[in-house]
């Protein structure tokens, strides 16, 4: 589904990604871990098409197409979803209006009919239950005045509504308490199918107790320095990153 | 931030077409003779001609104001024509007699004048250059005693009302453009709602400038008698021309005891091209007087057009417990300039005013909010709340705020809040990541920003205003 080859990317004149290779198949969950500043979030932003990041070398193929040639909205319409580390506030725009606009754009791109507000409300009832959100969240402005946990849950709600083929969760666990973490993880798990894939970018192993990955990658200084099974995450928890970084620096 | 908040193609102004119709246009120039000619063409009574001449004599002693935060080349007032009328428009018995070319023009603008096709619940007065081409729903309104017609017709049919209220809120000596308007005003709408009547439909006037080289000087007068209610909307469009055109209108509102007037404007005059050539100079005086106790006047404006906008819809709060409101969205893109705001003058006791202004600047646009809140010594218990928010799109536009507050009574409470924000690349990216285009994203962010004002508009027009905003901002972000 996703094939990243020798990806290099620069932001603000500084090279952050220095040759990433990563292959993700349908039905898989990949965890990308690594210390601060290793390039985890940059990888997520580059895949989603943030204009501030410039790709200087490498290729990314998504379902056989050149991902890097697509505008950010086209990537989204083709099923790539990024759960933001810092969800953005849009004052005055209700969550429900925003979600329906996004849902309809993605349906249009798939050649499906737009849905009217009534049928959309029914869909929302079902999706809200998944992330244990109450209806009041829908009438509030997008992320405005939301607590950290509410913002993250709102990201997962959007993911549940948009049903992406490839979801990238960028530190969705940061700033979440145990209950919120469980809710978010349950949401993500219930959306897993053999047709879609998830990349979980995280700092800590604890999220991976709830969302169990097929593959764990360790990113350091802009490269993947080690990949392994879910036990790699436990090893990192026990030993830290230093033993891997020494190898990377060499 | 951003190479991308820059480019993108502008959608063309959709109302820029010219109607090819024979017109009776006065040669350029202004003198007492021209005023006599205008007055004569309209068969006006002597008192009105006198009033016009007094205004003219005052006007020639006045200087064009240059305190607004806008710049433009000097206007040669002798180069303008002060009267233009489609030749075919003679007094009409019914709308069936309206020149089909004119009906087609209004249909193209999305304003059906054909009674059968009328949206229920809206009565329309259509003004083409200097004359009214037709008013719909007159019979339905007349049954309730409501007068809704062109000002010219009101001068003939209801001279006492016109004479009593014309100039009672905006005297001819008020300011340079009001004096000019008083001297040469051609047409406008007149509304009178009798005691205790709640007008059951929206009244609206659509102004259209067609003729090249003519100024438009319409004058609207709305009187709401005791305990009555009326909601009124004006819309404006003009053809695209490479030369600028002057539009100096006056609107006067009078609300008597316990009456309410809600006045909404969706202004979409041609704004000039991307380099700032052409467009309408919109120099307008709008003022309402809450003459009676418990009365209320509410202005809502969505200003998306014009090369330059200079207007301050204001309320004189004379009656005790009266309320004035001003809700405004002003958008400038390309080289548009707007200096707009309001004046709230508290005279009566326990008078309240509420101001919500949303300014959006894109391209090279310059947007100024100018507001005056004045509490006179006898205005015991007066209250004002002002909220003034600016949004910037891109790096070459400007937002300015000029609030003036004068309080002459210790019991008054006056609050002013202001904010300036910038549409962020991150907001746009967030929405694009959810499948929306950059244009949809900007439109959504701006609509959210303007929500408090849009909710004040009559339902049918809120959507129109929102779309207009989207169109105006197209090309501002990419």
Protein described:
- Chain A has 250 residues and is of the alpha/beta class.
- Helix content of chain A is 39%, strand content 28%.
- Chain A has helices at 40-48, 72-77, 95-109, 117-130, 136-139, 148-162, 178-190, 206-210, 231-239, 242-249, and strands spanning 2-11, 14-24, 29-33, 53-62, 65-66, 80-83, 90-94, 141-142, 166-170, 197-201, 215-220, 223-228.
- In chain A, the strands form three sheets. A six-stranded mixed β-sheet of chain A has the order 6-9-10-3-11-12, sandwiched between helices. A four-stranded antiparallel β-sheet of chain A has the order 2-1-4-5.
- Chain A is globular and about 55 Å long.
- In chain B, a hairpin with a 2-residue loop joins strand 3 (122-128) and strand 4.
- Chain B has one domain.
- Chain B has helices spanning 32-41, 46-59, 100-108, 138-142, 151-157, 159-165, 176-184, 425-433, 438-449, 451-454, 459-473, and strands at residues 23-25, 84-86, 122-128, 131-135, 147-150, 189-193, 202-208, 219-224, 229-237, 244-247, 250-255, 260-267, 279-290, 296-303, 308-311, 314-317, 323-332, 337-346, 352-362, 366-375, 383-393, 398-407, 413-422.
- Chain B is globular.
- In chain B, strands 5, 6, 8, 10, 11, 13, 15, 16, 18, 20 and 22 form an eleven-stranded mixed β-sheet that branches. Chain B has a ten-stranded mixed β-sheet with strand order 4-3-7-9-12-14-17-19-21-23. A two-stranded antiparallel ribbon of chain B has the order 1-2.
- Chains A and B meet through helix 2, strand 7, helix 3 and strand 8 of A and helix 8 and helix 9 of B.
Mean pLDDT of chain A: 90
Output the strand order for the largest sheet of chain A: 6-9-10-3-11-12
Amount of helix of chain B: 10-25%
For the record, give the distance between the C-alpha atoms at the N and C termini of chain B, rounded to a whole number.
12 Å
- Tell me the series of helices and strands of chain A, N- to C-terminal: EEEHEEHEEHHHEHEHEHEEHH
Biggest β-sheet description of chain B: 11 strands, mixed
| Alpha-beta classification of chain B | alpha/beta
List the chains of the largest interface with their residue counts. Answer: A-B, 31 and 26 residues
Q: Please work out how many helical segments of chain B DSSP would assign.
A: 11
Low-confidence stretches of chain A: none
How many beta strands in the DSSP annotation of chain A? 12
Number of helices of chain A: 10
Mean pLDDT of chain B: 83
Instruction: Kindly provide the radius of gyration of chain A, computed on alpha-carbon positions and rounded to a whole number of angstroms.
Output: 18 Å
Total separate domains of chain B: 1
Biggest beta sheet attributes of chain A: 6 strands, mixed
The CATH homologous superfamily of chain A is named P-loop containing nucleotide triphosphate hydrolases
In what range is the share of β-strand residues of chain A? 25-35%
**What's the shape of chain A?**
globular
How many separate structural domains of chain A?
1
Q: The CATH topology of chain A, please?
A: Rossmann fold
